[in-house]
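Please describe our next protein:
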Amino acid sequence: MLVYIGSYTRGNDPGVPGIYQLSLDTVSGELTLLSTCGGQQNPSFLAIDPAAEHLYSVSEVGGEDGGGHVAAYAIDQKDGGLILLNQQPVRGTSPCHLCVDQTDRCLIAVSYSSATIAAFPIDDDGRLQPRSDWIQHVGSSINRDRQEAAHTHSVNIDPNNRFAFVADLGTDQVFSYELDVANAKLRPNPNQPVLDVTPGAGPRHFCFHPGGDHAYLINELDSTIQAYVYDDRAGTLELLQTVPTLPVDFKGESTCAEVRVHPTGRFLYGSNRGHDSLAIYSIDENDGTLTARGQQATGGKTPRNFNIDPSGQWLIAANQDTNNLVVFRIDLSSGELQATGHEVEINAPVCVLFNERSIP
């Protein structure tokens, strides 16, 4: 199976690789580096279209004029390699997350430092048209160091392709937008335009349960995960539960980063940067609540991101500050993680993305 890694290039040299292509042996869990793709500065987060024909990346940079942009690539159907198609400015600073709708007609990106959202129509050949929508978030919350202003941190589209949810770390809120795919536009959801989160929590990343009736939010600053009931007709969230991601006896500094639901819908994982672990939970099949199953060390420092392969057998953790990817086997009965001994050195890995379509 093919795996793409987004990273920080940490410089302006266009020759420094930013996106890495690897293969995962789905029998042993061994990772092998196949190729690299340069030319983009800090292509930290990646997204892939449902047909696995196009890949998109942010370029997480700043500058007085915003400076950040998004890029579109064609995926070579013979070997999975990437061919740059075009790029578009986001009119924002430090674009940090993006997603593609299920029809591959609309891309949405959020920029952390400027707290902005940008939407782009996608051509049939995967190229990005000029920006079609732009939204500015404003506000703040109680953490003066991290929440002095709004900071949009992630965007996710619901399983029905009707609503987009934006987690704003700076305002302690999750925003819900109606998605107009045909025009690549966003409108505030009249049923629940804004969901307030615990003050000081710092909402970061968000994901849906495969069943579509629950969603989960990981909070960076207070190291918690919140479970919600999701009404897919109204696009509304109702809080069910808040659980910690750290052991009760941990006294150090740690912040959360990524949250993922296992493809079976039975387990959930969240990453701790500082404790350098993945928190493991089982998910109640009836009500969607979480039960803690402990933590697993990630084999490196600062697990910025991780992902689970579509079969549910393998988890790859990206340790940003030790420059390594570590592969774990998932116990399908308990959700526990077992180290395989397989890892690969990658410069500042930030995003792990699987290509679900087989390449010959």
Summary: The mean pLDDT is 96. Residues 92-345 form a domain with the Methylamine Dehydrogenase; Chain H fold (CATH 2.130.10.10).
